Amino acid sequence: MELKQRITAVLLLLIICIIPLTGCGFDEPEIPYLPVMPPPPEPQAPRVYIALGDSVPAGFGVAYTERYTALLFEGLYERDYVDKYVNFAEDGFTTTLLLDLLNNMSEDELNLFQNAHLVTINIGGNDILTPLIDYLPTPDDVMDIIYELWEFVQETMEIIPEVMDIASGFQEALDNFSLWRVWELPALNRMVQDASPVLGDVTDMFDRVGDLQVVRMLPMLYGSFSPELDAALMRGVASFAVEFNDVIRWVNTHALDAVIIVNTVYNPIPNHAFGMSLEGISGRANTLIQSINRIILEGSVAEGYLVADIFTHFAYEPDNMMNFFIDASQLTLSFDIIHPSAVGHELIAGINYELFNSLPS
Asked: What is the pLDDT of residues 322-346, one digit of tens each?
């Protein structure tokens, strides 16, 4: 019994010693606190400015840095409105060709539209310019006209001296003619007979003038178009009315967060050039262009896009707007009356920038 008591006492002693060791005995090493870091944010997609349209946003005739789309992007980038610039514009694009381009976009291109912050559109000018150009002479036709005029002038120069001699002879005979000198009548008769072939050539020359191609084109300068050209131009306007709405709906569908700015079409034909009045054809062009601009303006409220009135600004500031110049000091010249100059592009960029900047932030 004494042994049993001893064993019990040892066990109690061990329990008494072990409990403090396990409860508050040796200090465990401290583990440093490592805060849980959140995963890095995914990079934001760039805010894209996309330019659509014809040779105007494509920058025909000016340097890359001078085109209005590049100037507009530079201004918007500096104000931290956009990060990237993509230009899908092509020379010669009609509304039909632009719509075809949009309907055949690749997946990567569609992603650009999903991140678009601004889309500018210049379209419609070629819808009426193309039928007009198709009606005008081709370069080969122009060479034929030049050759035709040269031949006409050469023939005229041969006939004029003969006509002058005949006129002088008749004048002299008439000055000396008297009814009492009847013996001179046979001589006058012979003069008339000798003059007949030359006078016939003169008549033929006048007939040929009416057949010259350049003469047949003169009515266009006064705004008088043939029925065939009139019909082609009206078809261009009608086609624009349908396809422009399709373009806007496509952009609204694929660029949900983008501001859309549509530029009106300007009239490239001046009222005067080389001292010659072009008011007839310029006024006729105004009528057609304003038909397209009305379509643009009328759709802006329903479709929610902004309109930059390029037509009015170009009309009131015509000097140096077009890429038509003669620089004798640099021996350079340009007869391009269709496309804006660097000054014109700067004006377009400023109009678009102010319109975008006027939006509430």
From this structure: 765 444 454 444 456 788 989 999 9
